[in-house]
Amino acid sequence: MTEMTTHIFASNDDVTTGVTHRHSRSISDCISIIDEVTNSSSSGFCCLVEDGLVPDTAALNDAVSQVESADATIGILPDSRHPDLAFIWNRLPPALAGFVTPPESRAAIILNTARLPTPHSQSSPVDWPVQELVIRTALENSDAIIIADAGHSMADSPLPAASSSLPVMAPRYPGSNRRWIAQLLDQLTPHSYFNGTGDDCENTAILAGLLQLNDYLDESHNHSQSIQGQGTDANGDYWHGIMHRREPDYGNSKYWFRRVGNHPCFKQLPALAEQALEECGSSDSDRWTARLTGAKDWDAAEFVDLCETVEKSSDKDLTIAAQRIQWAEMLLLLEHSCRQASGQ
């Protein structure tokens, strides 16, 4: 196997030991290293990883071997504590998966330096340069990125770890350092990653979902509203309801959930919500478990009420549980939209 250099971020100092570099900065500030390895004439592998996500040596070597065997450009090795990243990359085309969340926040990123594209000239700030590299690489060649499981069957789940960085319940408009992802989403054509036998309105639903996951509520709303009432399961209306819930306009959100009716994603949400609430330390968790997962199975209107409650309360544990449920819900809906776009 070709030589590999590992860059570990968020340590206390900048040191080099052999082929391991430890940096006293976050991985979101590693653009200089990306520029260095992409401009280098030497071939090899480079691993970029946050201090708390460093895989053991055997797992990392196995993952690098997979990238080398596949002749891939980038390998993503999800940390076992972040099953939602494995869920995303196991089920979505790489060009879509890259937009969901910065993979470097939940995984070790392996770069095949000989195959990296020429660095893109940045015209605006970029808060997650590895994510941008992943997206641009996947848009050029979806086969250039693989999920590396280190030879093991990796468990996945749409429910994120409680420690994960997650979208807030009622976000502000993203700042200038997120404008790059909106610009790339403008170039995205989801239907080009499917076989063309699915419902075309689901491609619009996918765009609504990816914009929603990145807190572009108005742009997401434009897409979901354009396909209202369309599709087998009215996925656009579901994204529409999520948008108004996060706006927040809770009454309008409930209206759109009534239009959605009994969505297939509702079957999986009770167990995920129960787990998130059981794992939180709030004294109200049992009460909300009963309200969300009662006799009617998943109650979307009750979840709107929970979102409104945490937005007005100081119960941090309950807020984290609600954020985890919301994230799982959006991942399930995005996956469902993708499956219907592909005709499944």
Molecular structure report:
This protein is α/β, with parallel strands linked by helices. It folds into 2 domains: 4-147, no CATH class; 176-341, no CATH class. Helix content is 47%, strand content 10%. It has 14 helices and 7 strands. The protein has helices at 31-39, 57-70, 83-91, 94-100, 129-140, 179-187, 201-213, 217-226, 235-246, 250-260, 269-278, 285-292, 300-312, 316-341, and strands at 4-9, 15-17, 20-23, 45-50, 74-78, 107-112, 145-147. A hairpin with a 2-residue loop joins strand 2 (15-17) and strand 3. The model has no long low-confidence stretch (mean pLDDT 92).
Question: What secondary-structure arrangement, pairings included, does this model have?
Answer:
Layout: E1 4-9, E2 15-17, E3 20-23, H1 31-39, E4 45-50, H2 57-70, E5 74-78, H3 83-91, H4 94-100, E6 107-112, H5 129-140, E7 145-147, H6 179-187, H7 201-213, H8 217-226, H9 235-246, H10 250-260, H11 269-278, H12 285-292, H13 300-312, H14 316-341
Parallel strand pairs: 1-3, 1-4, 5-7
Antiparallel strand pairs: 2-3, 4-6, 5-6
Helix pairs in contact: 4-5, 7-8, 7-9, 7-14, 8-9, 9-10, 9-14, 10-13, 11-12, 11-14, 13-14
The number of domains = 2
Rg over CA atoms: 20 Å
Helix content: 40-55%
Main sheet attributes: strand count, strand direction, barrel closure: 7 strands, mixed
Mean pLDDT: 92
Q: Say how many strands there are.
A: 7
Please give the count of helices. Answer: 14
Low-confidence stretches: none
Keywords for this structure?
14 helices; globular; alpha/beta; 2 domains; about 350 residues; 7-stranded mixed β-sheet
